Automatic annotation (TrEMBL), chains A, B:
<dbReference type="GO" id="GO:1901605">
    <property type="term" value="P:alpha-amino acid metabolic process"/>
</dbReference>
<dbReference type="GO" id="GO:0030170">
    <property type="term" value="F:pyridoxal phosphate binding"/>
</dbReference>
<dbReference type="Pfam" id="PF00155">
    <property type="entry name" value="Aminotran_1_2"/>
</dbReference>
<dbReference type="GO" id="GO:0008483">
    <property type="term" value="F:transaminase activity"/>
</dbReference>
<dbReference type="InterPro" id="IPR015421">
    <property type="entry name" value="PyrdxlP-dep_Trfase_major"/>
</dbReference>
<dbReference type="InterPro" id="IPR004839">
    <property type="entry name" value="Aminotransferase_I/II_large"/>
</dbReference>
<dbReference type="InterPro" id="IPR015422">
    <property type="entry name" value="PyrdxlP-dep_Trfase_small"/>
</dbReference>
<feature type="domain" description="Aminotransferase class I/classII large">
    <location>
        <begin position="58"/>
        <end position="392"/>
    </location>
</feature>
<dbReference type="InterPro" id="IPR015424">
    <property type="entry name" value="PyrdxlP-dep_Trfase"/>
</dbReference>
<dbReference type="InterPro" id="IPR050859">
    <property type="entry name" value="Class-I_PLP-dep_aminotransf"/>
</dbReference>
<protein>
    <submittedName>
        <fullName>Aminotransferase, class I/II</fullName>
        <ecNumber>2.6.1.-</ecNumber>
    </submittedName>
</protein>
<comment type="subunit">
    <text>Homodimer.</text>
</comment>
<comment type="similarity">
    <text>Belongs to the class-I pyridoxal-phosphate-dependent aminotransferase family.</text>
</comment>
<keyword id="KW-0808">Transferase</keyword>
<keyword id="KW-0032">Aminotransferase</keyword>
<keyword id="KW-0663">Pyridoxal phosphate</keyword>
């Protein structure tokens, strides 16, 4: 086989835009065990139900045998779609049937395929700013432009949304994370959701409601999803098993109107034929054999404790000018430095102190504010949370007390 | 939730081309148990190693625990890539390292992502004609044009290939299946492979060598893959576990030069973040704990028997004017009717006799010959093979003896 530099000179125009990423290179340094990294977004592995999964897999092979490992329908495993239809009602107030549901290879795949079926090159996607960077990556291959609307402490600013929609008829898709947003941790109250739906109902747009964290809530009441308020078939809901169950199985789902399901399934067939038939049964059988709600309660109890510990430690160790939020769910808190401090520039100093975060600038689809960073608290033992925040506090004092 | 007709009027230009497919609708009729369907391409489920998999999963949970179900690296599980590097040497004469390998969510995903990174809208893909229809589906979202080169009983016609390449500088990618081709079952002899490489080395093109069937060979010697003859880093090899192991886990791989691996991994991250970390371990641990070669021998012994039975039955029951091949590996045989007989038009009559095939016309990227059909023999018990071929023979006699 040929080795060394490759002469494969020509990539697609899109692929040529994929360049080495300096932040990714810095984050690669955080893999060392001595670094306390708040940079990831991983769930707590100590709660993965490994012993239960041994029994789950055994039951799948015994009860389903060969069918569990053969090709399956592209739309997904019947039992799992039935369970999810019930779950959508119970957890998100959405009244749908299994026919409205497609199982995806993680909700990342949902983002990617929805962009493929909804966007032409040059169409505009409207997003919160900041927002999930993985969504931008999933939409990029379709070649859209991005326009943004600010968020306040209650989510997307609806007056600004209306102005932007009224002034730009190239907007075809709106991407939002209304619950425990990544990266800010913000949740939209029900009034904001209603106001949002009132606005978007006036325009010819599709809303992607990304909800991977909605079941990771710390004691606050369930809120109706945007999809539950959707009277015109304009909202596609995206859910995920990565935070409530285990991410390694790569399982997510969409809830969508019939015509979107039809196009989505056709494209999914050409993308991966279908999501692992065995993996789908692992989730379905776990839900059938064990108490998923009790499992989620374990997760939320642990994460609430870690959130408190992180926020309390920030109060103790961070300079007073540094602000942060205490999220009511999800995996992240968002830290705001005084204006003029660049969180990306500070990263190498943080890593020198063996602590890491993600600089906020990467979460902005267009130009962004530089004085934020995101901290993850789900994937870290309590002692390391305290020690890591303490190290960050030292760094911030050094910078701000200069 | 909104029900009924959807008002989501606007899909992407590409999605609008995805229309209802009359052949798919007819094939949906073949799901009834009374229909003997040779239309699929499924492996024989009776050889799936279900009891072994119980032990495999147990070992993964016990030895690897949480790591086996957490997010993993996008490029794939180390041990599996190491095993595959050795396998590539042993089975396909390719000298590569684990760094050249990316694990994919089935080889369908490899086709899709390679098109994304290699093709701009309007670029030309050169293909055998007929060829795997799933490749066309995977390439379509990138908006290419297709040009074709004829095949004879030894594969792609190299003289024609050279003429087409010399006359069309928009050709950027060549897609071929040199072993036990789907749908024709043809395998290129080594001389043809060498002549092919001599031609493509003169042009600035990338070759996708799709090889899902190469390990399903009936007693004939292994042949060097195109990738093993690649001195310029122009060939990307695609492999699959769907035929040798189990398709439900959705596991495939590519072997590619460094720069392709780099772009591929970046796009895969935005498509599904990574292939199931647990699924990858299911394949790796099966290879570690059991004798994969003995398992593949069981498969090839059974399929060779079924191929013989199908071909012998066709000799017995089909009219003499009907031709077919006796493939030396893979899952399919290709039947050629006398010119003027339309295999698609004949399909409804076949289904009325409770027997089904795939009409050949769907395997042509552009205009195609109508007097072929494809038969699968891997996924059918022996008595049903004989009975199905007998029914087809009756139909063909009725049509040809008119």
């Amino acid at each position: 086989m040929f080795r060394g530099d490759c002469i494969m000179a020509r990539f697609s125009t899109f692929a040529q835009t994929l360049q080495a990423d300096d932040i990714a290179e810095i984050l690669a340094l955080t893999q060392k065990p001595e670094v306390i990294s708040f940079a990831g977004g991983l769930p707590a592995p100590e709660l993965f139900p490994i012993e239960e999964m041994k029994k789950v897999d055994e039951a799948i092979y015994t009860e389903q045998g060969r069918q569990a490992v053969q090709y399956g329908p592209t739309q997904g495993y019947d039992l799992l779609r039935e369970q999810l239809a019930a779950r959508m009602k119970d957890k998100f107030f959405v009244d749908c049937t299994p026919d409205n549901i497609v199982i995806t290879t993680g909700s990342q795949q949902a983002l990617f395929i929805l962009a493929q079926i909804l966007l032409d090159k040059g169409d505009t996607v409207l997003m919160e700013s900041p927002t999930y960077m993985g969504a931008i990556m999933a939409f990029d291959p379709s070649g859209p432009r991005y326009t943004t609307v600010s968020t306040d402490e209650n989510g997307i600013v609806v007056e600004e949304l209306e102005k932007v929609l009224a002034s730009d008829d190239s907007i075809r898709m709106i991407y939002v994370i209304p619950e425990f947003q990544n990266p800010t941790g913000i949740t939209w109250p029900v009034e904001r959701r209603k106001a949002f739906m009132d606005v978007i109902n006036k325009y010819d747009v599709v809303v992607l409601e990304d909800n991977p964290y909605g079941e990771i809530r710390y004691g606050i009441d369930k809120l109706p999803s945007l999809k539950s308020m959707d009277t015109q078939g304009k909202v596609v809901f995206m859910g995920s098993f990565s935070k409530t169950f285990m991410p390694g199985f790569r399982l997510g789902w969409i809830v969508a109107p019939d015509d979107v399901v039809d196009k989505f399934v056709k494209v999914k067939q050409s993308v991966d034929i279908g999501t692992s038939t065995f993996g789908q049964r692992q989730a379905a059988y776990f839900c059938k054999m064990y108490d998923m709600e009790a499992h989620i309660k374990q997760i939320t109890d642990l994460y609430a404790k870690r959130r408190d510990l992180m926020c309390d430690s920030m109060e103790k160790y961070f300079p007073q000018e540094v602000k942060f939020n205490r999220p009511q769910g999800g995996l992240f808190t968002w830290v705001t430095l005084p204006e003029g401090i660049d969180a990306k520039a500070l990263m190498r100093k943080a890593i020198a102190k063996n602590v890491a975060y993600v600089p906020g600038v990467i979460f902005y689809p267009n130009e962004g504010e530089v004085n934020h960073f995101r901290l993850n608290y789900s994937n870290m033992t309590e002692d390391r949370i305290v020690e890591g925040v303490k190290r960050l506090g030292e760094l911030l004092h050094e910078e701000l007390d200069k």
